[in-house]
Specification:
By secondary structure, the protein is of the alpha+beta class. The protein has five helices and three strands; from the N terminus they run H-H-E-H-H-E-E-H.
């Protein structure tokens, strides 16, 4: 899961899909990447059940399968922020560091 989320393009796709479903052409425009690259990343996300696809007419709309994945991403960023700033973690204030 973390290897899958370690790709900046896939992370950007997930964040773009956080608010509403989007089609490939909209994602291509937003990401400013070739359609083949975006489609490849969507296929990986779909294979790992992070996004789903629904056909509406000629368009295929992609959406998050489970919004919990964004919680994982947010927590990873928060942890990284603590590490970079050399700050303690608020939930460990009453515990001794080992």
């Amino acid at each position: 899961m973390f290897r899958l989320l370690g790709n900046v393009i896939r992370l950007r796709i997930l964040l773009l899909l956080a608010n509403h479903p989007l089609d490939v052409s909209t994602l291509v425009t937003q990401l400013e990447l070739p359609q083949s690259n975006v489609s490849h990343q969507l296929a990986l996300l779909k294979r790992h059940q992070l996004v789903s696809a629904k056909r509406t007419g000629k368009r295929v709309l992609y959406s998050l399968t489970d919004p919990h994945v964004l919680t994982m991403v947010e927590m990873a960023y928060q942890h990284s922020d603590h590490v970079v700033k050399h700050q303690g973690h608020p939930y460990l204030r009453n515990q001794k560091n080992f």
